[in-house]
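Appendix C: a fully annotated inverse folding record. The material below is reproduced so that readers can follow the format used throughout the book. The structure is listed first as tokens, followed by the designed sequence.
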């Protein structure tokens, strides 16, 4: 059949032994249809100036977005230099799972709703990659797309997060005690756990006259400034303490401790007394007192604190309340 013979002849011509051959025939289906393309020669192939892999075809999906293709090594350097000059991150984008997590990490309290282009920019991903992965995340339920075209975190992630043993399980046990603590003082009762070099707030109960705070449930904060953070850092492994104390430290107020020697003395004081005091380290109108929550083995697994208006109560009086609540939560934890 002429079409088949022509296709085979042209395909054989485009071999490493004959790099200057015309590559201009593409087979469709069973080779019964042949698309004839312009004859192109590449004189720079043998000289190493251009790789054969540089010749790629980028398909367009149903939404008109170009699909991602890998760049050859020879051209990738030029692309990275160009990207660097534009102020964009360079280098490989990483595995698919890593790129999907980059998209999810683009959301934060200040960016709860994002367009596709904003997602791609904040995740440092090509628009085509962001488009493809965001579609898959939407199908799974990790991300939701509103009628306005903006993307938001989906409820499926909340469902999975509720299974975390250090979060909701601990919260369910501690919640009645936190409510009592907040009700008796009219202030903020907080529960937190350590995650790496930071803390994560698991719960916060605010009383009717509670002092405003910078924390939120699910939010992260420095270990060196808050009452719960000082407790968690004081009982963290030595290597964690050393890494945190190596800095840098964020200064929230003029009272925020940022000198390692001062922090070491404060942590030793927390361990010896059994509670922490954060005196106007986060805001100038708040005082925080924290205490450790221990599991059945005596290991510190969380911390509870009261955040009150500065000057409304003495730290020692607050310490008794907080330690009593922390001990009650510790006893209520499942063995």
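Designed amino acids, in order:
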């Amino acid at each position: 059949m002429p079409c088949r013979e022509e296709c085979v002849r042209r395909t054989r011509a485009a071999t490493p032994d004959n790099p200057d051959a015309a590559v201009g025939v593409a087979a469709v289906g069973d080779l019964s249809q042949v698309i004839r393309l312009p004859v192109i020669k590449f004189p720079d192939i043998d000289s190493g100036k251009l790789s054969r892999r540089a010749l790629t075809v980028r398909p367009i999906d149903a939404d008109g977005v170009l699909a991602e293709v890998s760049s050859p090594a020879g051209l990738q350097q030029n692309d990275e230099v160009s990207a660097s000059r534009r102020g964009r991150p360079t280098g490989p984008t990483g595995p698919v799972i890593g790129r999907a997590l980059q998209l999810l990490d683009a959301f934060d309290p200040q960016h709860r709703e994002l367009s596709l282009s904003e997602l791609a920019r904040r995740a440092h991903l090509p628009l085509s990659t962001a488009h493809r992965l965001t579609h898959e995340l939407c199908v799974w339920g990790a991300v939701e797309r509103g009628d306005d075209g903006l993307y938001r975190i989906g409820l499926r992630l909340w469902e999975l997060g509720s299974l975390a043993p250090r979060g909701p399980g601990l919260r369910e046990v501690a919640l009645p005690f936190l409510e009592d603590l907040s009700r008796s003082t009219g202030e903020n009762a907080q529960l937190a756990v350590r995650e790496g070099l930071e803390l994560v707030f698991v719960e916060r109960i605010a009383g009717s006259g509670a002092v405003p705070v910078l924390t939120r449930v699910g939010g992260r904060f420095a270990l060196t400034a808050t009452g719960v953070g000082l407790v968690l850092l004081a009982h963290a492994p030595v290597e964690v303490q050393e890494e945190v104390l190596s800095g840098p430290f964020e200064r929230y107020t003029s009272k925020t401790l940022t000198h390692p020697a001062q922090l070491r003395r404060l942590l030793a004081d927390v361990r010896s007394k059994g509670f922490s005091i954060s005196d106007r380290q986060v805001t100038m109108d708040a005082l925080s007192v924290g205490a450790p929550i221990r599991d059945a083995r005596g290991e510190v697994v969380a911390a509870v604190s009261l955040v009150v208006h500065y000057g409304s109560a003495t730290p020692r009086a607050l310490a008794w309340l907080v330690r009593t609540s922390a001990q009650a939560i510790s006893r209520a934890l499942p063995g």
